[in-house]
Specification:
Blueprint (H helix, E strand, L loop, with lengths): L8 E6 L3 H12 L4 E5 L12 E2 L1 H9 L15 E6 L2 E6 L4 E2 L2 H10 L6 E4 L2 E5 L5 E5 L3 E9 L6 H5 L3 E19 L9 E5 L7 E9 L2 E8 L6 H8 L1 H8 L3 H5 L2 E3 L4 E11 L6 E3 L14 H20 L7 H8 L2 H19 L4 H16 L4
Parallel strand pairs: 1-2, 1-10, 2-7, 4-12, 10-17
Antiparallel strand pairs: 3-6, 4-5, 8-9, 9-10, 11-14, 11-15, 11-16, 12-13, 13-14
Helix pairs in contact: 1-3, 1-8, 2-8, 5-6, 8-10
């Protein structure tokens, strides 16, 4: 179906992060007129997903985007696991260490010149079963469908009556920093995962891996954001690493922490009241993910693939964009399975730090939430 003359685009994507950029590229590639709106010309430095896992590499390949990862994002290859005093080695085949911000900016470059990019702030949305209006600072734009991909911000969600249901009991805090060997030799590995046996510390594990020539560490925890240990880690990361991982130098060699510690707190939420015409919410806007599970990009890319390669091309063949069409996406079995799998992995990591009674309480909580549709 041809685009109506009074419309500026078939699709307007609000947000040009990972999910927004990949969505725009794939829609434009199909000949679907797409406009992307983002507040920043350049995606800012941010601590987000720093690995592409094998399943995610497959999805990026299907979405024609894997080739656009930065040249420095080479396969990690053999990775070492340390757990319960046992060393094991495995070949990840296709696991990449990435700088998230650089990767997103590289994706953005691929949108030119076929996708219109507008650097502006979206101030409001007006939705209907046929025509959507996106208000930016100096004008308004018309389209058939709005895709919201702002990375977890909820200002526009509130404006259209979509609610975010949070679960404070399900949260994780993650830290990232760079390492360098203290001698003149390079590290003798590309990837190293250390799983603590003692879960009393609230630490899930630390993974150390290469991003280009930089050795990066991601520490995944179940810490509360108000704990003093976080301040201690940011102030004296070397001392805190020695405290929690005293034997780590035996496995990777002596090292020095060479960067500031970045901290990223995530709390579980999922959207509700989604029966609105003309708008789809994807990625971290729809549901948060614990980085410890490694499933964040799985969920993002599943959202993008199902929406942009399956649902949108079908929807555009007929008039209208009412809530019945929109509901097809949210009821998509592959999307739902990926969302639920990500949630279950998060719960599993949390429950590793609970005793017997705590794990039983967790099972009861899951049953109640599922029965009452509270997730």
């Amino acid at each position: 179906m041809q685009m109506d003359a009074k419309m500026d685009a078939d699709i307007i994507i609000v947000g040009a992060g990972f999910s927004g950029a990949v969505s725009a590229y794939n829609l434009t590639k199909q000949g679907i007129k797409t406009i992307v709106i983002d507040r920043s010309d350049v995606y800012p430095n941010a601590f987000r997903a720093e690995k592409i896992e094998p399943s995610q590499a497959d999805a990026l390949r299907r979405l024609s985007m894997l080739k656009f990862r930065l040249p420095s994002a080479l396969p990690l290859g053999e990775t070492i696991n340390y757990r319960d005093g046992i060393i094991s080695r495995f070949d990840t085949v296709e696991q990449y260490g990435i700088n998230y911000s650089d990767t997103v900016n590289n994706f953005r470059k691929q949108l030119q010149p076929d996708t219109e990019f507008i650097c502006a702030r979206v101030t409001d949305l007006k939705l209907s079963a046929d025509l959507q209006t996106v208000f930016i600072e100096d004008r308004e734009l018309k389209c058939r469908l709005v895709i919201l991909a702002t990375g977890g911000k909820d200002t526009l969600l509130k404006k259209v009556g979509i609610s975010r249901r949070k679960h404070p009991s399900l949260a994780s805090l993650n830290l990232a920093f760079n390492l360098a060997p203290t001698n003149d030799c390079d590290f003798k590995f590309n990837g190293f995962n250390y799983f603590l046996t003692d879960t009393d510390h609230g630490i899930d594990y630390i993974t150390i891996f290469k991003i280009g020539e930089t050795m990066r560490a991601n520490l995944f925890t179940q810490w509360n954001s108000k704990l003093e240990r976080i301040k201690a880690f940011k102030k004296s990361p070397q001392d805190e690493m020695n405290r929690y991982f005293p034997d780590l130098p035996e496995h990777i060699g002596d090292f020095t922490i060479t960067s500031k510690v970045q901290v990223f707190l995530t709390q579980f939420y999922r959207l509700h009241n989604l029966d609105k015409p003309g708008i789809i919410v994807i990625g971290d806007d729809y549901q948060s993910v614990s980085p410890a599970t490694g499933s964040g990009l799985d969920k993002v890319l599943t959202d993008v693939e199902r929406l942009c390669l399956h649902h949108v091309p079908k929807w555009l063949k007929t008039n209208g964009m009412d809530s019945s069409k929109i509901g097809e996406y949210y009821r998509d079995k592959l999307k739902q399975h990926c969302d639920d799998d990500s949630l279950e992995k998060w719960i599993s990591y949390r429950d590793n730090h609970r005793g017997f009674l705590g794990r039983q309480a967790s099972k009861l909580e899951i049953r109640i939430n599922k029965y009452l549709d509270l997730w």
